[in-house]
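Lecture 7 notes. Example A: sequence first, then its structure tokens.
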Amino acid sequence: MTSCGAQTSDQQGPSVSTPSSTSLSPAPAGSTPPQETCAAFLPSAPCAIYTSTSGTAGGTNLPWVASGSLRVQLNAVNGDLYLSVRTNCAPISGPVEITGNTMTARDLAIGAVGCPEELGRQDQWVLEVLKRPVEMSFSQDSLQWKSGADTLSFKSADS
């Protein structure tokens, strides 16, 4: 079995894993580090970290969402958009595309954190919401997400 960046050989004895040579190379002269900036979910929404205020799953209220258990932020890194979600269990992040008022996530990753069963189910629900296109709106200082029959509402953490 090999791991990312591992090198193997046909020799007998224990295998030795070493980082790939690209991880040891310094950045080329003149290159600049990635530029990360806050990005707005919608033109009408301020660029901010948003905290959950309410949510529903198929029309049923989710009290754990109302407690501010979700924090979401959108960043631009060298022109590409990245969503960051912090739950009561583990972080979720990945690239997204926004067309009009629809956000579509691609290749989301969830942090490796051991969580109690209920918190794990909550994370899975959030991940399922984000796997579908999310229709967004912003009014009265509230960011609204709708994904299928599920909804989430957020307020700016600065409000």
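Example B, a different protein, same format:
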Amino acid sequence: MNALWITLALLTAGFVGWPVTALVFRLARTIDDRADAAGVAGTGAGDAAVVDPAADSTADVESPQPAADAAAQAAPAAQAVPEPAGDADTVSNARILRGGAIIGVLERFAVCLAILAGQPVAIAYVVAIKGLGRFAELKATPVAAERFIIGTLTSLLWASGVAALTKVLFLG
């Protein structure tokens, strides 16, 4: 019977945590949008800050091209000058935190399993591996860092809560 409760806890932590995290992201965006609207209305200048199309999305977003890039693409292929290769350290703003949803599910599985197994120190390993894997992207993109923190804390709290409830109520 314990195996059933552990399996249900893992599935609940991993897959039900996905819409919970999405809800927290939506709430954070709503709060940011209200703050931005109040800031723009409060200044009276009417100059809005540049909007990052990827600020609340992990999906590919077509970003507007600068006029020079559009003109270069309009030129015939024979006259086109090859552009220099981009810096390897830069991170594309068009897609942030690629694979974050899948990583989040795996993170919630690992956290729930660590608590159910009585090894909460394993949570530190999960967070450390996740942080090291995302370090370059987090350093280069403040929006990614904010999403990383919100998503990680939401996932950790959800998985910990599910595991603790399962352990107290069903595994006694």
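Note on Example B: Residues 25 and 147 are 8 Å apart (CA to CA). The two ends are 12 Å apart (CA to CA).
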